[in-house]
Design goal:
elongated; 64 residues; 3 helices; mainly alpha
Length: 64
């Protein structure tokens, strides 16, 4: 199970995050991966740009 970067941002300290991961059954190297992501999360932007595709503007969309 992978936790989103946005959810990782809510944790204030590493101990709180480790406890959350333990409660949710995340163990082993996945814990360390989440901790590293959490530590680097403050300098990383997690904004994702989403666009809406309409059938009138996109010729690759098939209409039925």
């Amino acid at each position: 199970m992978k936790i989103s970067v946005d959810k990782l941002k809510i944790f204030k300290d590493e101990g709180e995050l480790r406890n959350y991961l333990k409660i949710n059954g995340i163990t082993g190297s996945a814990v360390e991966e989440h901790i590293m992501t959490w530590k680097s999360g403050s300098s990383e932007k997690s904004t994702k740009k989403v666009t809406m595709v309409t059938t009138e503007t996109d010729t690759t969309v098939e209409t039925k």
